[in-house]
Model the fold of this input.
Amino acid sequence: MPTSRIRPDALSVDTDVRTYPIRFVHLAEVPAHLNNLGLHGPSVVLITDENVAAHYRSPLVHAFEEAGWTPHVVVVPPGESSKSMAQLEQLYDTLLPLELERSTPVCTLGGGVVGDLGGFAAATLLRGLPLVHLPTSLLAQVDSSIGGKTGVNHAVGKNLIGSFYQPHGVLVDPETLHTLPAREWINGMAEAIKHGLIADPALVDYTEQHLTAILGDHDLSATVPAVRTAMHIKAQIVAEDTREAGKRAWLNFGHTFAHAIEQVAGYGTVAHGEAVALGMRAALYLSHRRAPQALDHARLDALLAMLPTPDVSALSFDALWTAMRHDKKTQDGTIRFVLLHAVGDPFVASDCSRASVQRAWDFVQQSTA
Ligand code: NAD
Ligand code: ZN
Done:
């Protein structure tokens, strides 16, 4: 890895609430690592989804039982629809009769859905149980397990009910990626490349060299350094702005377009990471128009174009523009875009004209047609 900022064995997240470690472990070592985090049994709550449970429930339960714990497992249906008040209530109904103690740890084993839902359950049960994320999707590893955002969706919009609730630790077993579906690799790598574009030219170089091995071969030796670096970047941004008052907004690079694309295409049609890949291409185009000298547009666009995306030729710019104007992050009708002065040097622009944004979308649409 060509960056000097990586300290592979000492990743941690320093927030106003607590500093917690990110550790790369085998699932079998999770019980011992909970002890190292100061968390003890006998009870532990494991929240996971059906897909992940099919592969990892037994080995994890076995590891806990071997170590003398009593695991209580809750399995939710996979997918975004589980981030609901109804599912949360079911979790409460299942867990409260167990007479948990304030010290009972909650582990979320899965992707961002399980992390957000289980994290919010942990935040609210008995006014807060210790939480440990065991992220198994690439997106959860590089992004959602760090930073303490938890919550569920509401009919009015995504992620509208929730809290900032920092975990006690994030324990990553990269081997779990062996069973991750191919499309989820694209979702995760879109966010990892985003971290590089906003914060670390070395990560951009690295993904440029290794993306084929990562997405094509799911080669863990190529993937893990990118995961570590992406986690480090997210941790640093969260440390500087835990409650999203400033720099944390940079993580929305590509997301103004992405949220509109997901909404206009119909949720689930274009996956989040795919929409982010398209949104980053539009944001790069806007950035390059402002600072043609500072960004190698052709090179960076080619990197993003390596992320496969579905056909978006049917999405009208008018519909996207309307969706962007109504996004919850839009204030006073002013649409904000995170743009780049250069790789690693983002800023928030609220003065992009409709015509310039349309040109950016036309570019993306034509080049994906
Ligand atoms: P997800 O949790 O739905 O996981 C994607 C799919 O992969 C699911 O079907 C899941 O069952 C499956 N899966 C996960 N790990 C697997 C494995 N190792 N083997 C086989 N299958 C596996 O989605 P996601 O992309 O991980 O996360 C998306 C969610 O994260 C969204 O709800 C989003 O809002 C949220 N999010 C939260 C934050 C945050 O800061 N809290 C940041 C980004 C995204
Ligand atoms: Zn995202």
